[in-house]
Amino acid sequence: MKILVINAGSSTLKSSLYQFPDQKLLWESTVDWMRSQIVVKSFNGAISKEIVSSSTQLETLSHLLSTIWQGDTAIVADPNEIEAIGHRVVHGGQKYSQPTRITQQVKDEIAQLSSLAPIHNPANLNGIEIAQKIFGGKVPQYAVFDTAFHSSLPDEASIYPGPYAWQEKGIRRYGFHGISHQYCADRSAQILNKNLDSLRLIICHLGNGCSLSAVRNACSIDTTMGFTPLDGLMMGTRCGSVDPGILLYLLQQENYTCEQLDQELNYQSGLKGISGISSDLREILSEIQKGNSRAKLALDIYIHRLRSCIGAMLASLGGLDALVFTAGVGENSPLVRSLACDGFKFLGLEINHQLNENKPFDQDISDVNSKIRVLVIHTQEDLAIAKSCYCLQSENLT
What we know:
Nucleotidyltransferase, domain 5, 6-stranded mixed sheet, 8-stranded mixed sheet, globular, alpha/beta
């Protein structure tokens, strides 16, 4: 069975094609809307790069998908060989705690939830609608929700200490990056050769968006992102947790509009806001080497908030078997991993600095004598989405 995965974001559109049941990656592509660039890779070794020439996302995605069955990167004879399509959807609200076949009702509810994930849900929905225009109704499509893994949060972790009426309005902690957190939890158990039910894990998903999860008994019991993806850790352009009194002050005393607040909190804060340089940690580290004090301050705040939130997850778990790093920064920044771990040496956590420096994907980088294991895992959200689709499609065929 061949399953296409479409991960439509606000700045990129990533797609991949998997063969099941052997879980083989056949083809993958990335459209970078900011750089107007398309990159396509096929398992036969063919790679193509080109500039986005189409004026619409529909035309771009249609052209992109055609490379699966046309040209040097072609790996299927006919588009009808694709039997299911899976989509990452960031916010599923309280209703969607499982992967779900997409209907008009599901699309309408994803749209309604856009107010809770305004950067993500509209882009996800756009990917769904474009795929439906390309493939029609012949190929079943499934939504896999980032919030689903965190639906196991206990009430004390998910309910905010405001008026109880908030909970009745659906205002609660949902958590995000759940597809990545679940994949990394399962992969951690494989690497450690232990049953996931027996492990206490803290998973650090550190990319442009950042979140932590505390995993016990194979379930998420705490996480840093909340009602929206704006809560928790300092991120690339998002502020993470701030005193809500600041927002009242800006509204009442500085005459901010809601639109100004949204712009600053989501797009002008975090690493970009403090450094004044970029949301890209690589650029900030480069500036630190040049003596840029604001770049250094941005990194210091980032590490302080990361350590603080890891400490909170520790308290929720009551102990720790493994600390896991994943996503763009988590997988590729030895410095961030080292600085984060330095704060927990008092627990007997020690990393092997040589392993830490050597691109240690899917490895244990802790010292042999460390009381807590430290893992670096290359998250594969697309594979996790494809697995969910394969299970659902197999059930529908039986």
